[in-house]
Amino acid sequence: MNVNGQKVSFHSPAQRLLDYLRDSLELTGAKEGCGMGECGACTVLVDGEPVCSCLVLVGQISNADVVTVEGLAGADGLHPVQQAIVDCHASQCGFCTPGVVVSTTALLARRPQPDETEVREALVGNLCRCTGYQAIFRAITSLGE
Ligand code: FES
Ligand code: FES
Predict the structure, then answer these.
(1) What distance lies between CA 126 and its chain's CA centroid?
(2) Does the pLDDT of residue 131 top 90, yes or no?
(3) What is the CATH class of 80-142?
(4) CATH homologous superfamily for 2-71?
């Protein structure tokens, strides 16, 4: 498969994508919160769609294009979603932040100027224990201003 634009190979098809990314590729942006598809902390893009990497086995997605939060920033700095999170102080412990950033990136790819309902729907699978969500929503809506 491709991960952040690099061709990579795997040897354990039954390994969870989350473990493969974190343990084999040392891409530790995606976090394990629940391990059950409930919290969204492990969200990555698979062929452009946000998925919970704790629920996917690498053997299920051979040849896919995977993008993790590490793959979003460019040579000239943070991705605009990451910068908005920083600017709006929308991260506290930061555990949910990679998943929020990845889910938001997927939303903006299909809806460059989402309304508040669309933002809330896109993030329904991303739980945050710290911010109360208002700062996160403020960060995302600031992108369209
Ligand atoms: S760790 Fe995957 S959804 Fe919670
Ligand atoms: S910033 Fe701590 S869980 Fe969201």
Answers:
(1) 9
(2) no
(3) mainly alpha
(4) Beta-grasp domain (3.10.20.30)
Strand partners, 51: 44
- pLDDT, tens digit, 9 for 90 and up, residues 21-31: 999 999 999 99
Sequence-distant (6+) residues with CB within 8 A of 136 are: 85, 88, 90, 100, 123, 128
51-63, pLDDT tens digit by residue? 999 999 999 999 9
Decide: 21 in ligand 1 pocket, CB within 6 A.
no
- Ligand 2: which residue has its CA nearest to atom 4? 128
Sign of CA dihedral 68, 74, 77, 79: negative
pTM for the model: 0.95
First to last CA, the chain: 36
